Fold this protein.
Amino acid sequence: MEVAVLTKSSKFGNYCVAGINLASGEFVRLVTEDDTIHGALTFRDIQYKDGSCMQEMDIVKVKIKGRDSNPLQPENVIIDRGFYLDKVGTFSISKLVDICPNSTGRTIFGNTRCYVQESDIESVGKSLTLIRVSDFVVHQRVNAEGRPKAKASFNYNGYIYDDMSITDPDYYNAENGTEVDDAILVVSIGAPYGDKHYKFVSAVYEI
């Protein structure tokens, strides 16, 4: 499978990698069978044979074992860890703009909150989306445990979203108040936390 990599975000101390299957145009999330890290990819998993590391916007050829069985993340495909990734090209911002739909619905995953309730998650039908937003702002806050946490606010389809966690490594350490007027975001839904599935800004691409 050839994949245009759009996210290489943080997941349980490892990596959540997702992108576009260039053959079908559909989103895929690359996962492992390692339940101890919730299917995340390790640093070894994202290395090329020459020792360099996969980056966002790389086009990679990856050996796939099959679909994952997680019904809440239907995009998941299991990589064969016996093979290295093979970089075969580079994607571009202009191509990203071309494939970004004008709308994926009036709201993000069915509502304007930063999460989906457990009772509603089965009706969502996907866990990744690509959207174009305006007035994107990074807010550096402190969570209940006293740890810093990057949050995003932005405008999508006339709705203001606030307090959505950022897992894009280029932005979760960004200065408080960092603004992007026009951006394409990859937004994902994570594993359940209590009775909620939180939404994450997994990648930010300035336009």
